């Protein structure tokens, strides 16, 4: 039985991806910072994991044992004017989205390299497919992973490993800003109000949206298709942006 370890499975894309792999008969190790009962199908293994904590990463990898696929889905975001973004929170975004992903990859490479088999999937965002306003820090954290993944794919191919990118589009139901300790209203100072108003109106009524199942299916394809394809846009809006680019 193949084994997949997925980060950030308490909700959204990660939760749906864990359910999808379970339905396909895989051994699923679903990780989240604070494990909760009842979220996942019976037989799913749930582990505590904070991707910003080196000791937590070591403990989770040791508990998981050999894995065939790593899906780096854990992430946090922020919408608003960059001028107003607290630098402490920007660092938190990079700690989770960028350095947390890199740390997880570095932790699993030795076992995959030794077996000369394995797939690593890094989940980024459609903000890497086109420039979008009011998401500068988040975009930077995800663009870093795009460059990282492309370079790493060349390194790992020498050992028979595949490294992939899944790029979800916009999902209005996804909790984009979370774990913040400041008022989200403060992210749009008065001088930005006129600029931001039509952007938020567009967010509220998008012509195309990504569903959680779109991302789960894209991750499944990235893990199982056996090709060297690097980019997997997920959701109709992301696919449209990828084609336009």
- First and last CA, distance: 38 Å
Mean pLDDT: 94
Shape summary: globular
CATH topology: Rossmann fold
> Strands of the largest sheet, in order across it?
3-2-1-4-5-6-7
The count of helical stretches stands at: 7
Q: How much of the polypeptide forms β-strand, as a percent range? A: 5-15%
Keywords for this structure?
Rossmann fold; 245 residues; 7 strands; 7-stranded parallel β-sheet; alpha/beta; 44% helix; single chain; 7 helices
Describe what you observe in this structure:
By secondary structure, the protein is of the alpha/beta class. It has one domain (3-244): Rossmann fold (3-Layer(aba) Sandwich). The chain has helices spanning 12-23, 54-64, 87-115, 136-157, 193-204, 212-224, 236-244; strands at residues 3-6, 27-32, 45-48, 69-72, 119-123, 162-168, 231-234. It has a seven-stranded parallel beta sheet, with helices on both faces. α1 (12-23) packs across α6 (212-224) and α3 (87-115) packs parallel to α4. The longest helix is centred in the middle third of the chain and has 29 residues, at 87-115. The protein is globular, with a radius of gyration of 18 Å. 41% of the residues are buried. The mean pLDDT is 94.
